[in-house]
């Protein structure tokens, strides 16, 4: 009997010991099953529920993990309980210490226990500044719909991926960040700026629905851009995929995309950029492998809006630039509008229906494109258009000379090149008359800026040969002068003031001395240089003679001196028109 009592007592003791260890394991968050929790507890006592969930999710071998480590009470990211806007109501059990995250990304023993799924957390509040500078773990980081009020620093970090979708954050300082795939910052609401200077992203960069605000810049090299109030800075970055800055993205301050290489499309439609009286958006010296979409016609989402200047400078765009319906606003006499300077667009530039309010400027200086499309409704106010150096192969409607001349007259001063470019396009498209009209309009403006005598000479060239572009016009004027001369000679002949200038060594012909004088041939002989029709040589007005002729039933008196003076003028006109005609035909006068 005693033997059985002893065995029973031992069984009770063993059962009690097992229950104690089991309770301890449950109380400690399963440290017996999760070595990562045990390792973390040794460094970070009093782990919160959110921290335990993060460690359990990250533990290698956890085949039952879901999509995220759930810091709250609901696994649905869209559930109101996971809205970081209400993070002030979250209890301390939803907190994750920033230093714990840093430890997970740099402690070799911890890294060895973390699954390739990495750190993925939903609905937590990160306490303290999150410093992940120079970490190079073999996994990524996702802090989805989290509250991260402190500064996030990712200087020279190398992650498999990065996601902060839907989170409320402070400044994100990610200079020289490297990721092996995407960077998702969709829906980020930040109280500071985003800095991706020198980053390398082997995937897409997405900033949909995000909001960023400019902060204080203290680095010396940023002093030159202090007035820009930078909210987003992506400079010297290499992004293999697309960059999406779309769908209600907002920047309170400038967005700078500078010296970047972007493999896919760069999209900003449906977004708002605000930096009044200064640069709101700048894409400078970038190489973009796809399209730039300030607007997008598919589904017709709202075009981007800019309060301030939107500028593209020295960019190379392999696709097209779509800006149809873009809104460019600002106060009167402030810096605002759209400038596309020294930029090559292989496809088309679409600027139809631009909204250029209160004197917004539109500049295309030095840029080039295959097709340029705009609309009259999108033209800027007079003096706010700059086209010097802008070239295109094809021009969308309106593409007639009259409409495009009105377009050119909106320029902020006279430039020769835009007129030559338009004339070349019209000539290639078969509108030779339109091309000539444009070139004549160019010369009108050019001579209009010169001195009085040059303007007079310009008017002579315009009305005689169309500045060399209508040389046959001189033939019309020649015909008018010759016919007028024939009329004058006819009058002089009937009035008897023409005299035979027969050689003294030759006997005077008998009969009427002027019967052989042909007024038309005489006028032609006088007008055309180097031509002898044997008229001018044998007859000339007698300056002392005076005669009468009858016209319209009335008698008029005329003197030979008047006829002689007219013929002298006709001789001069002949020389001048002939020289101008030859110069026009040979192109010596054209200012090409």
Key traits:
single chain; about 600 residues; alpha/beta; 20-stranded parallel sheet; 15-stranded parallel sheet; 12 helices; about 25% strand; rod-shaped
Short précis:
With 592 residues, the chain is α/β, with parallel strands linked by helices. It is 29% helix and 25% strand.
The proportion of residues forming helix, as a percent range, comes to 25-40%
How would you characterize the largest beta sheet? 20 strands, parallel
Rounded mean pLDDT score: 84
% residues in beta strands: 25-35%
Number of helices: 12
Class based on secondary structure composition and strand pairing: alpha/beta
Question: Residue ranges: pLDDT <50 for 5 or more in a row?
Answer: 1-33
N-to-C span:
126 Å
Shape category: rod-shaped
The beta-strand count equals: 44
Rg (CA only): 43 Å
Characterization of this structure:
This protein is α/β, with parallel strands linked by helices. Among the domains are: 399-449, no CATH class; 473-586, no CATH class. It has twelve helices and 44 strands. The chain has a 20-stranded parallel beta sheet that branches. The chain has a 15-stranded parallel beta sheet that branches.
